[in-house]
């Protein structure tokens, strides 16, 4: 595929993403017009407006974008890894591990950085656990990985329920919001954005190998791909992406499943196109979903995961229904 | 002769037995508007929420409490009592085997369905749901009556009512201040006007900026808080570990509360339960608001 | 052009006793057919020759160099394989599918150029599927998919072509066209090594044969020497009649 073919859809998606971010920073419970927003963005505006937009809305919008992008790219990678278009970033139990880490930190009374750090540690622990177990005696197939991941995920689920059952009522709202995915306490967006950009650059040279891998591991090996190391690389990269996303916003569902799937229907399955497109479209989706979460019952807030699930479930069912 | 004897004993049973009961019977109406009657004052009471435990002790019935729910940490002797589970996950078997003659339940924490089963087993259940300061005083009076401590309970209730009305009189004409009360930080939560803490704020001459929201404990965004322009921010963190809650507001110097250094940390233990300790909590809150007024 | 040889190769079939060692020499210009009943290990042999499976014992050599010592990428430039069954979990067009054959020839940062596309298109034309270029592979018939797979191998253009049942799903005309294409490429200096289940197709188009017996025994050599009725009868455990048509033997199973 010539580079110019890549450019047009990606440029269109980037424009949509910018528009979504502009909407997101102009909308909120405090009433600011688009004019006020623009004047702040170019360096003017009153002090309160500057605070609202630059300190509150913009970091949150960028965090939403990074989270959505990370999850969508991770989902697309997992789908190639498992050769299953219905896989999502959490299918191997990574969100469960992150959740157990975060909830334990909350139960112990930790806040802020300790919760995200603990979530990240939990996510990496879950990754290594599945990695080790699926490796087992050496024979390794996507279905074995999937099965290991699903069973480990069920184990995490049980631990989450146990922690929730043992927690005092005052801690439950925080825990439930975390589990549903919530952006209100995403810290700095920059680490997430940096990881997103880095991975998009990294996967570009891997893109054609991923295309070949999507045809099956034997076919890929016959075409000169080092299948085993590529698969572990994808697994680790996807895990790192998901862990970063989960650390920022908790377990936001459906972005990683729906976005790659929809983009494949529209743009085909060239990973060099799909992966950056996922970063842009996933980010856009989460920015819009978070904007909704902030305004639907304003001034009260909904967790963004509720919105993505409400959008994601019917969309996905429709796609499945149409795809026969 | 036989008939006569039978008639006499029948009459005796009609007059004597009920008469004998009525001497000790105690009744009180609970929050579900049911008149709960006990044949005699309760001596084995199980409390199913930390708030109920406090009210029982305030009513002078501390010695009759045989078991409590988890987190019943006040007054200190309550923490030593056997526990029958978390308020929303009670161990019915443990409760029944304690053979209580009264169980005190809390409308916001306990499960109706679960406790209706307890009532079917013949255990009297008294429901509490204090929404006003007056409800707290009445709850203590009711518990005093049901446990045979009426004089103690009435004295305590009168003291509480007196304390509240003193506060009311003191701050009735004070200048109003706009108060944001932070219940939790992740997610950011506050209270609406129906919550007793908000009523305590009003008592002190403050205005809860989120009094009009529909839910009792609404979840809001930082942006919304800034938009309401609070003059005082009160956070209910648990001691020094939650000083960070206050620090995170320092980022917004354009807010009056921050500009005037009107950021306060109160201990939630005095305010979080609708009990007599609220009076103390309300006094602390009034002091804070008075200090804040001076800085405006 | 590359030669494929095996040195005392015993393929690894789990749960089966090791068969007799193979010492094959597949030279440029040769067309090899592998014959044998179902389950005898023909596919396993192809995968072993392609380096996708470890042998039980012995070695596969490309121009005298052990397959295991070569980089996968350089192996895939010299040797390619058409699989018997293919995965298409993800949607892909016919052209995209053929283009993956260029993978071994492109560096990581290279996009497929117009020249690569032209190579793929020529291959699709040669297999008579050029008109399906923009169709999704999942919508094709079995025979069309088979030809797309062979076109992918042709796009890959290795020296050694391994094919697992290339005549599967093909109608008579396309069977002949594919066989003609394969022997044409052999004449141009490539080596073709394919599993076949059609004895007569092998007799007609292959110049060398490898017979794999259920007992694990194997024999190989020029087709003339291998097409002995008694050997073939014991291979398939089936009585055969032989007739000569157009200068070549034709084997027909005896009724009852």
Automatic annotation (TrEMBL), chain A:
Locations listed in the record: Cell membrane
GO molecular function: transmembrane transporter activity
Transmembrane segments: 62-82, 89-107, 113-133, 145-169, 189-206, 244-267, 302-321
GO cellular component: plasma membrane
Record-linked Pfam families: FecCD
Membrane topology per record: Multi-pass membrane protein
Any single GO BP term: cobalamin transport
InterPro entries, per the entry: ABC_BtuC-like, ABC_transptr_permease_BtuC
Record's keyword terms, sorted: Cell membrane, Membrane, Transmembrane, Transmembrane helix, Transport
Protein family (similarity comment): Belongs to the binding-protein-dependent transport system permease family. FecCD subfamily.
Name listed for the protein in its UniProt record: Iron complex transport system permease protein
Native source species: Marinobacter pelagius
Organism lineage string: Bacteria, Pseudomonadati, Pseudomonadota, Gammaproteobacteria, Pseudomonadales
Automatic annotation (TrEMBL), chain B:
GO biological process, one term: cellular response to iron ion
Keyword ATP-binding: no
Keywords noted in UniProt: Signal
InterPro entries in alphabetical order: ABC_Transporter_SBP (IPR050902), ABC_transptr_periplasmic_BD (IPR002491), Vit_B12_bind_prot (IPR054828)
Signal peptide residue numbers: 1-23
Domain Fe/B12 periplasmic-binding: 44-293
This protein's name: Iron complex transport system substrate-binding protein
Native organism: Marinobacter pelagius
Lineage: Bacteria, Pseudomonadati, Pseudomonadota, Gammaproteobacteria, Pseudomonadales
Automatic annotation (TrEMBL), chain C:
Keyword Nucleotide-binding: yes
Residues of the ABC transporter domain: 4-239
CDD domains linked: ABC_Iron-Siderophores_B12_Hemin
Record bears the keyword ATP-binding: yes
This protein's UniProt keywords: ATP-binding, Nucleotide-binding
Superkingdom of this protein's organism: Bacteria
Name of the protein this chain belongs to: Iron complex transport system ATP-binding protein
Organism: Marinobacter pelagius
């Amino acid at each position: 595929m010539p580079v110019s073919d890549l450019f047009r859809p990606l440029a269109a998606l980037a424009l949509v993403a910018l528009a979504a971010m502009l909407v997101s920073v102009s909308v909120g419970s405090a009433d600011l017009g688009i004019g006020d927003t623009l004047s702040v963005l170019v360096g003017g505006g009153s002090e309160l407006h500057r605070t609202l937009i630059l300190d509150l809305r913009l970091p949150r919008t960028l965090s939403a974008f990074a989270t959505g992008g990370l999850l969508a790219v991770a989902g697309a990678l997992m789908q190639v890894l498992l050769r299953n278009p219905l896989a999502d970033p959490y299918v191997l139990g990574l969100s469960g591990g992150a959740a157990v880490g975060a909830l334990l930190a909350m139960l112990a009374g930790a806040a802020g950085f300790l919760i995200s750090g603990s979530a990240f540690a939990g996510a990496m622990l879950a990754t290594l656990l599945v990695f080790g177990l699926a490796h087992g005696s050496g024979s390794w197939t996507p279905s074995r990985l999937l099965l290991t991941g699903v069973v480990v995920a069920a184990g995490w689920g049980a631990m989450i329920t146990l922690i929730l059952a043992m927690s005092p009522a005052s801690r439950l709202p925080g825990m439930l919001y975390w589990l549903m995915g919530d952006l209100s306490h995403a810290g700095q967006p920059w680490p997430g954005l940096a990881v997103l950009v880095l991975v998009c650059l990294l996967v570009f040279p891997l893109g054609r190998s991923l295309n070949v891998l999507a045809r099956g591991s034997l076919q890929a090996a016959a075409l000169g791909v080092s299948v085993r190391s590529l698969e572990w690389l994808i697994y680790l990269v996807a895990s790192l992406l998901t862990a970063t996303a989960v650390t920022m916003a908790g377990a936001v569902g459906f972005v990683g499943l729906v976005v790659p799937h929809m983009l494949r229907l529209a743009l085909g399955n060239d990973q060099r196109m799909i992966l950056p497109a996922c970063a842009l479209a996933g980010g856009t989706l989460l920015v819009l979903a978070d904007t909704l979460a902030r305004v639907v019952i304003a001034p009260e807030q909904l967790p963004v995961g509720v919105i993505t699930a409400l959008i994601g479930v019917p969309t996905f069912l429709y796609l499945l229904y149409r795809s026969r | 002769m036989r008939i006569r004897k039978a008639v006499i004993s029948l009459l005796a049973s009609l007059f004597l037995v009920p008469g004998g009961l009525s001497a000790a019977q105690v009744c009180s109406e609970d929050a579900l508007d049911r008149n709960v009657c006990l044949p005699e004052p309760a001596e084995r009471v199980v409390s199913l929420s930390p708030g109920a435990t406090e009210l029982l002790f305030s009513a002078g019935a501390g010695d009759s409490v045989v078991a409590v729910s988890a987190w019943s940490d006040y007054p200190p002797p309550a923490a030593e009592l056997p526990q029958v589970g978390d308020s929303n996950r009670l161990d019915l078997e443990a409760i029944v085997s304690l053979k209580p003659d009264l169980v005190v339940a809390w409308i916001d924490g306990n499960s109706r369905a679960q406790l209706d089963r307890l009532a079917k087993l013949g255990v009297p259940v008294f429901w509490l749901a204090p929404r006003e300061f007056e409800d707290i005083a009445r709850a203590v009076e009711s518990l005093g009556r049901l446990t045979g401590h009426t004089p103690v309970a009435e004295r305590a209730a009168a003291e509480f009512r007196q304390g509240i009305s003193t506060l009311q009189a003191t701050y009735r004409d004070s200048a109003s201040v706009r108060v944001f009360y932070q219940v939790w930080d992740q997610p950011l939560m506050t209270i609406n006007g129906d919550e007793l803490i908000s009523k305590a704020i009003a008592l002190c001459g403050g205005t809860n900026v989120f009094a009009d929201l529909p839910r009792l404990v609404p979840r809001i965004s930082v942006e919304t808080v800034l938009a309401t322009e609070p003059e005082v921010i009160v956070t209910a963190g648990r001691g020094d570990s939650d000083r960070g809650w206050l620090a995170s507001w320092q980022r917004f110097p354009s807010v009056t509360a921050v500009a005037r250094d009107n950021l306060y940390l109160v201990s939630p233990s005095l305010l979080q339960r609708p009990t007599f300790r609220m009076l103390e909590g309300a006094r602390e809150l009034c002091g804070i608001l008075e200090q804040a007024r001076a800085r405006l | 052009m590359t030669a494929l040889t095996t040195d005392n190769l015993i393929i690894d079939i789990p749960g089966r006793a090791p068969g007799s060692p193979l010492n094959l020499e597949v030279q440029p210009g040769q067309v090899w057919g592998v014959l044998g009943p179902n389950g005898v290990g023909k596919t396993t042999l192809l995968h072993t020759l392609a380096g996708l499976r470890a042998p039980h014992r012995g070695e596969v050599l490309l121009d005298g160099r052990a397959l295991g010592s070569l980089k996968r990428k350089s192996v895939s430039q010299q040797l390619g394989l058409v699989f018997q069954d293919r995965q298409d979990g993800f949607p892909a067009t016919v052209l995209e599918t053929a283009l993956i054959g260029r993978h071994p020839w492109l560096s990581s940062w290279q996009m497929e150029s117009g020249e690569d596309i032209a190579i793929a298109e020529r291959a699709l034309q040669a297999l008579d599927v050029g008109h399906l270029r923009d169709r999704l592979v999942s919508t094709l018939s079995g025979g069309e998919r088979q030809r797309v797979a062979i076109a992918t191998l042709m796009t890959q253009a290795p020296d050694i072509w391994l094919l697992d049942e290339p005549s599967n799903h093909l109608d008579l005309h396309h069977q002949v066209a594919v066989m003609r294409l394969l022997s044409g490429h052999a004449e141009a200096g490539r080596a073709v090594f394919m599993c076949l289940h059609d004895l007569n197709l092998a007799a007609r188009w292959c110049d060398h044969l490898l017979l794999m017996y259920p007992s694990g025994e194997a024999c190989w050599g020029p087709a003339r020497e291998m097409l002995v009725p008694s050997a073939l009868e014991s291979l398939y455990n089936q009585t055969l009649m032989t007739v000569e048509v157009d200068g070549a033997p034709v084997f027909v199973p005896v009724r009852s």
